[in-house]
Write a structure and sequence with these properties.
The chain has 327 residues and is α/β, with parallel strands linked by helices. The protein contains ten helices and twelve strands.
Length: 327
């Protein structure tokens, strides 16, 4: 495996709950609660889980679009031996790191300023970092557009003139214009038609191979993960409950929550059958998680220990971790 590019240790992001006339803090929503993992150079790590599990909050906290409350985010290289910390970087240092750490959002129409032309949208990062201007800027923007499958006719048009898939291509071009090494893909294909999803995923895979990119791929669709990611983090109530390679997770998920997610993947081959695991109830509130294992209130195999003791995320093999008392 390639050397680590991003290392995350004990990352936490809680949102305070304030009530009363004086806005006193009465609790907190534990969106990300002590997450530890790494992403290697050129690797795609997927983050999966139900809505509300903390996936998007985790992705945005990695880039300090949301300020972390605790934990360490280390970025390695590109120079050998050089390590920088995202959470403690000054404004000037963080601005420089923005070139290396980029994001593609779920809704391209919401993330693209409707009053800006494509040449200005894609070129904005180049201008901010002092990388190009004038005619050179236009040439570099056109190069990025061609890289994602668009042509010169897109340069002077506005976002509303494009389809959803084309707008997402523009968003990808904008993220790649400053030559990043790590890109968060926050549900980047979930708002697109299935056929367009396949096109965008193939494009992202090609770009990863061409440019040596590392992706943090946030999704709720495990069917996509199987073919796109090398490793998978399963998130539940802001915590990692299982980490495995994509092949391991699909062949033999270990955590009961992972098994339930896997069983919900639509069957694609005629005649194939799979036992469906239906979880009881709704996920607990991240503002008031249950004691012990946070999943025990819905787990079909929970034991008495699960109700009082939180399981540690421990190694169960090379590169594989599970937070379950039964494993």
């Amino acid at each position: 495996m390639s050397a680590p590019l991003l290392e995350v240790e004990g990352l936490r992001k809680w949102f305070p709950i304030r009530r009363g006339w004086f806005g006193r803090e009465r609790g907190a929503v534990r969106a990300v609660d002590g997450v530890t993992f790494h992403v290697a150079a050129g690797e795609t790590v997927a983050c999966v889980g139900e809505s509300g599990s903390g996936k998007s909050t985790l992705g945005r906290t990695l880039l300090r679009l949301l300020e972390p409350d605790a934990g360490t985010i280390r970025v390695h290289g590109p120079e050998s031996g050089r390590v920088r910390t995202v959470e403690s970087a000054s404004a000037a240092e963080l601005r420089k790191m923005r070139r290396e750490l980029q994001i593609v959002f779920q809704d391209p129409y919401a993330s693209l300023n409707p009053r800006m032309r494509v040449v200005d949208l894609v070129g904005e990062g180049l201008v901010i970092h002092g990388l190009a201007s004038g005619a050179e800027l236009r040439e570099l923007v056109l190069r990025e557009l061609e890289r994602v499958g668009l042509d010169a006719s897109a340069l002077d048009r506005y976002p509303h003139a494009f389809s959803g898939g084309q707008r997402q291509r523009i968003s990808i071009a904008r993220a790649l214009a400053v030559s990043p090494r790590f890109v968060v893909l926050d549900e980047a294909v979930s708002a697109l038609d299935v056929s367009v999803q396949a096109q965008i995923l193939n494009l992202l895979a090609d770009l990863r191979a061409q440019l040596g990119l590392a992706y943090f791929f946030i999704t709720h669709d495990l069917g996509i993960v199987r073919h796109f990611a090398q490793r998978v983090l399963v998130l539940y109530l802001g915590r990692i409950v299982e980490e495995a390679t994509a092949a391991e997770l699909f062949e033999s998920p270990k955590h009961p929550y992972s098994k339930a997610l896997w069983s919900a993947i639509p069957i694609q081959r005629p005649g194939e059958s799979r036992a469906r695991i239906v979880l009881a109830g709704e996920p607990p509130s991240p503002a008031n998680p249950p004691p012990g294992c946070a999943f025990h209130t819905r787990c079909p195999v929970a034991i008495a220990r699960c109700k009082v003791e939180e399981p540690a995320l421990r190694s169960v093999g090379a590169g594989r971790r599970v937070a379950c008392h039964l494993e």
